[in-house]
Design goal:
This is Cysteine desulfurase. Pfam families: Aminotran_5 (PF00266). Its cofactor is pyridoxal 5'-phosphate. Its EC number is 2.8.1.7. The protein has 15 helices and 15 strands. With 404 residues, the chain is α/β, with parallel strands linked by helices. The protein has 2 domains: 131 residues, Aspartate Aminotransferase, domain 1 (Alpha-Beta Complex); 254 residues, Aspartate Aminotransferase, domain 2. The protein has a 7-stranded mixed sheet, sandwiched between helices. β3, α5 and β4 form a beta-alpha-beta unit. The longest helix has 21 residues.
Length: 404
Amino acid sequence: MCPIPELRQQFPILTSKNEEPFIYLDSGATSQKPQQVIEAIDSFYREQNANVHRGLHTLSAQATSAFEQAREKVAKFLNVQSNEIVWTSGATDSINIIANGIKAQLSQGDVICVSALEHHANIVPWQEICKEKGCILKVLPITKSGILDLKSSVELIFEQKPKIVAISHASNALGNIQPVEKIIEAAHKVTATTVVDGAQAFMHLRPDLRKLDCDFYVFSAHKALGPTGLGVLYGKYDQLNALNPLRFGGEMIKEVSFEMTSFQDAPSKFEAGTPNISAVIGFSAALDFLNSIDYKELQQYEQGLYDCLLTQLRSINGIIIYGDTENNIGTVSFRYKNEHHFDLATFLNGYGIAIRSGHHCTQPLMKALDIDGTIRVSLAFYNNHDDIDAFIQALKESIDLLEI
């Protein structure tokens, strides 16, 4: 296997000879893509372009085979069955499919729980279902530093007996690895359906969903070396197949007449129309790339980068770090004194440092922390210690400029 630091050479955007410096520390927004993913997409359009499941000709058969093999790769990666994997347009789309599909099983007064750390995509769909069905949204609480209060959250679940518990595996804003196993265990004791947003966790944690035992799990390909516009929805088969479909059209139907229509079983019933075939082919290559890396080595390497970043940030007077720094996927969310995060991010961009500033689509979390946003640095295995050193130097110089 290739040593982790050498994998960086396989990412064209990180190794191109640009005149301007470029340090990419925004993998929480989207990951960069290795050469083999780019080539897989290019090769599909050059040599194999055809629709899937719709033709008897050779190109269609080849495309269909590659498309379904990718589904099997995802299932194997997650330790589930391939008929439990649905292709979607992203984690947001996946959550909306679940929320729309399960609402027929809900009644007025039913409780839905989300955590205070959730991305808007795991809040708003449930809010809309609550408005439509007369359900009640309850929030699993966090501590003042932005960590899930596990004891109080479990007590709330036992007290409220929700029908649905939706929680992120890792916080996109703070990087916290959530104690989802204990939340899922508590939820199942009150027969709640569990929905886990794995958008940030999939690449870093490689979840075993049989072991995790969640009912639904979602993520986006683009945060795991794959293309944009593609996501995955996993569901335990009986519960997945019980969902009503969100979209209707070709491919997902069994039979159509002007009197009635019947639908195929999952996963086909959720994949109306022509899918994002090239993205699936690209993500298949991304999974091959991830499977070629020793998982323990990857985690150790990312942890080393994260520890180095934390140490250097903590040496700067005035830096305030939020979230769980003991259990983290490699994301640091911080502020400098009372300076506005946007100003600091603008200065950093002038040094070629790509980071994220703002509320990170977690406005309720920012309100709970009594701030309007943070600077977010999100690492991946293709970063190195030179990236961190360059960032810290640029940060110190940017702070000096702010203080003039």
